[in-house]
Amino acid sequence: MHSTAEDRTLLPEHREEIAELRSFLDRTPAAVEPALLRGPDGSTHSLPSEVYEALMVVVSALAEGKAVTVAPVNTTLTTQEAADLLGVSRPTFVKILDEGGLAYSRPGRHRRVLLSDVLDYKEKRRSQRRRGLDDLVRMTEDSGLYGD
Question: What is the C-alpha to C-alpha distance for residues 126 and 144, in angstroms, rounded to an integer?
Fold first, then answer.
């Protein structure tokens, strides 16, 4: 069964409880002992540090009102899911694929892309925009267009 990004997306529905949890986590010092998870039956299990760190990231984002999608890095996305992640239209994303901007597979009639590749592409785009803005600021400063 193909699970969509929407199936793994958490929306900040319990904002007050999430804010309280974030406040608790922010106040809790990093401990030598692992954090514990308590199940509905009262049993506890220690959390590996990477699970605790993931929990911290999720709680922080939800507390800021952001939706969070949890998916393994090797997850494949549809072109629509990838376009949504990048904040572009599906036709624009397909054009990126056609121009060789991202690798994709075509297991059937539809293209699929790896989540990891989409995230790498997103980071490269962000870096390029940042460098472009830095260049623009530098040119503006060199031209004396910034006043004191």
Answer: 27
- Does pLDDT of 57 surpass 60? yes
Contact 72, 78 (CB under 8 A): no
What is the rounded radius of gyration, in angstroms, for the C-alpha atoms of the chain?
21
Take residue 15 and report the two structure tokens written for it.
């904002």
Task: Single out the residue of 27, 46, 26, 28 nearest to residue 36, CA to CA.
Answer: 46
pLDDT at residue 32 in the model:
66
The span from the CA of 104 to the CA of 113, in Å, is 5
139/48 Cα distance (integer angstroms)? 48
pTM over 0.90: no
